[in-house]
Amino acid sequence: MLVCDPVNSGGFAVREIHASHSVCMELIMTTIVNPSIQGDLDNLCGIYSLVNAVAYLYDGAVKRRRLKLALLNTFQQQWQLDELLTYGMDDQQLDYVIDKGLQRGYYRHKFPLKFSKPLLPNKPRGLNQVFNLFHRYLSERPHQRLILFCTPLHWTLIYKIEAGRVFFFDSTHKKTASITSFSYRRGGRYEIDPETVYFIEQGGAT
After folding, report:
1. 47 dihedral zone (left: phi>0; alpha: psi -120 to 50; beta)
2. What does the DSSP 8-state code read for residue 194?
3. In angstroms, rounded to a whole number, what is the distance separating the alpha carbons of residues 155 and 48?
4. Second-level CATH architecture of 7-202
5. Helix (H/G/I), strand (E/B), else coil: 22
6. Number of other residues whose CB lies within 10 A of the CB of residue 133
7. C-alpha distances in angstroms, 62 versus 106, 110, 119?
8. Is 22 a residue whose pLDDT tops 80?
């Protein structure tokens, strides 16, 4: 597994508006939310994916470093931190961190999210069915939904599927991949395992 750290960039665009005897300057604020980028060897991609999910769905409003530390502290309630740094996080550990760290207390109140595992208990029969489900889910509420999943080595986020390509909000600078590079329960770089796929939606926690 892999890892990341925060980058919020806000840009200002200035344009002139000519009136009869005056020039008005209009300041336009454009907000761009970028994923936080992990270190190459820290195996914190699961933690970074959760931090990036909150940042993406709430337009960068969350204090990412504070959230990262809160999630690490949550993990350490059950496991040793060196286990996370050595082996990364499995889906049961991620479930625990989501429940204890994001679905309770401050973050549940300020940044509520809905999590579900859409490929369980009724597992799709093939890759086409999986991607039809993914595409429909994301396109129904653009910018308000994400898909979190784990490849054999890395947790990452999908925010869009378009023209045969998957677009990532990822902690390792990975931007996009062809749908043809994915597999369903058959191994490979982008293997999809029903146990490690989560739908995430902005809104009240359930």
Report:
1. alpha
2. G
3. 9
4. Alpha-Beta Complex (3.90)
5. coil
6. 16
7. 11, 9, 29
8. no
Q: Which residue has the higher pLDDT, 69 or 189?
A: 69
Check residue 31 and give its pLDDT. Answer: 58
Partners of 114 in the β-ladder = 201
- Give the Cα separation of 62 and 66 in Å (integer): 9
Tokens of 16: 């002139």
pLDDT at 201 over 60: yes
Which residue, 92, 142, 143, is CA-closest to 117?
92
For 105-154, write each residue's pLDDT tens digit.
999 999 999 999 999 999 998 999 999 999 999 999 999 999 999 998 99
**β-strands 165-168, 155-162: how paired?**
antiparallel
- Let me know the angle formed at the C-alpha of 3 by 205 and 193, rounded to the nearest 5 degrees: 60
Bridge pairing between strands 7-18 and 23-34:
antiparallel
Query: Which of 185, 180, 154, 155 lies closest to 166 in space, CA to CA?
Result: 180
- What pLDDT shows up at residue 86? 95
- Cα–Cα nearest to 7, from 48, 44, 45: 48
What is the chain's length? Answer: 206
**Amino acid residing at 22:** S
What are the two backbone dihedrals, phi and then psi, of residue 181, each rounded to the nearest 5 degrees? -85, -5
